Amino acid sequence: MGGLVLTRQRRAILEAIAHRDDHPTAAGIFALVSARHPGTSRATVYRTLEKLAALGIIRKVCHPGAVVRYDPRPERHHHLLCRLCGAMIDVEAPGIQVTALPAKPVQGFVIEDYAIEFRGVCGVCRRGNRRKRAAGTGRKA
Ligand SMILES: [Zn+2]
Ligand SMILES: [Zn+2]
After folding, report:
1. Which of these, 9, 69, 4, 51, lies nearest to 34 by C-alpha position?
2. CA of residue 73 to ligand 1 center, whole Å
3. Where along the chain do the CATH 3.30.1490.190 domains lie?
4. pLDDT tens across 91-105, in order?
5. Strand 79-82 relative to strand 59-61: parallel, antiparallel, unpaired?
6. Quick one: 82 exposed, middle or buried, by C-beta within 10 A (0-12, 13-18, 19+)?
7. C-alpha 2, offset from chain centre
8. CB contact at 8 A, 76 and 98
9. What is the DSSP pairing of strand 88-90 with strand 79-82?
10. Cα–Cα distances in Å, from 94 out to 64, 87, 89?
11. How far is the CA of 24 from the centre of ligand 2 (A)?
12. 115-to-44, 77, 90 alpha-carbon distances in Å
């Protein structure tokens, strides 16, 4: 089962991203992995990411207009996308429901998955803007 050969790389990658909720890019993950495991090739990391995503162990997140990111949460969930800093944040708000997939084909189309991206401005950017404005008045927000 050729998969065994990949075990070390897989483990290194999964360790690198397991506790991250910032949806790193392939380049970012390569930097993390090669810092801990010098000598790991970029191609190996990229290939292993593709494989882990294909196996459903991690999730490949491709939103239009945004770079491809990888997500250690394989289950369906949605994202907040900041148009200022590009941050991608998991939606945790209970008010935003995750709709179950229809059991039957829709217009002859079998729906397998979906993802919603909510675009706007993240908390950090909003605070940054406030701070800039507050600095002008000489008061701290
Ligand atoms: Zn932001
Ligand atoms: Zn996510």
Report:
1. 9
2. 21
3. 76-141
4. 988 777 677 888 999
5. unpaired
6. middle
7. 27
8. yes
9. antiparallel
10. 25, 20, 15
11. 10
12. 28, 7, 11
H helix and E strand count, the chain: 4, 5
Ligand 2 mean position, distance from CA 5 (Å): 28
DSSP 23-91: --BHHHHHHHHHHHSTT--HHHHHHHHHHHHHTTSSEEE--TTS--EEES--S---EEEETTT--EEE-
What confidence category does residue 113 fall into, taking pLDDT thresholds of 50, 70 and 90?
Answer: confident
What's the CATH class of domain 1-73? Answer: mainly alpha
Structure token pair of residue 110: 């079998």
Start-end ranges of CATH 1.10.10.10 in the chain?
Answer: 1-73
Task: Give the DSSP letter of residue 102.
Answer: P
Among the bound ligands, name the one nearest to the CA of residue 83: 1
Right CATH for 76-141 from 3.10.450.50, 3.50.50.60, 3.30.1490.190, 2.60.40.720:
3.30.1490.190
Instruction: Name the band, by pLDDT with cuts 50, 70 and 90, for residue 131.
Output: low
